[in-house]
Amino acid sequence: MPRRNTKSMLSKLRLLFRRRIPDFLGNRRAVSVVVSTVVLSAGVLALGIAVLYWAFSMGNLSSLQYSRTIATNSYAASERIGFEYISYSSAGNRLTVNIINWGGAHNLNISLVHITDSLHNYVGTGAYTPSILTNITTGSPIPDNDLDIGEEGRFTITLSDPLPSGYYNIRLVTGRGRTFDSSFITP
Q1: Rounded distance, CA 128 to CA 97, Å?
Q2: Do residue 10 and residue 23 come from a single domain?
Q3: How far apart are alpha carbons 49 and 43 in whole angstroms?
Q4: Dist. CA 2–CA 181, nearest whole Å
Q5: CA–CA gap between residue 91 and residue 85 (Å, rounded)
Q6: pTM for this prediction
Q7: What is the domain-level CATH number for residue 119?
Q8: Which regions of 15-62 does DSSP assign to beta strands (E)?
Q9: Coil, helix or strand for 53?
Q10: Is there a single domain that holds both residue 120 and residue 163?
Q11: Which domain holds residue 60?
Q12: Are 57 and 110 in the same domain?
């Protein structure tokens, strides 16, 4: 008897599948659910890859910017300027400054010069852009307008007003943001 029961059950299942499979394959709603699920999954996957790529790119840019900043700061920390001679000429109101790069950083350039009197009041406009650096011994312009290690240079600033006799401070600001101070006296 169990054998007959099994046979009748198998025949009922076959009949059921024969009736249901054509209905399932012919049902457009079932296909649209599958297609929409595949399309939605592909969209989510594409968006996930795009976000991953964007995050990777931002990480690389941040890392590159960080390493450049660290390199610039380490070069700035090793900058050293020595003032060799400061001369003021009342004829033409010209201030000439001889400097030497005695630090450990190449490509040292002077971006601004601040001049103050003994009471720390700015002289003239307060901030001057130095002229082209020239070689002290030859007088010829330094081609890249910056000083390498051990290189000497000279620049001139033309002041708007003559300096009365007295004590003055000069502050050089490098391209990397370091400041170096010295003083001079006008007769």
Answers
A1: 13
A2: yes
A3: 10
A4: 108
A5: 18
A6: 0.63
A7: 2.60.40.380
A8: none
A9: helix
A10: yes
A11: 2-76
A12: no
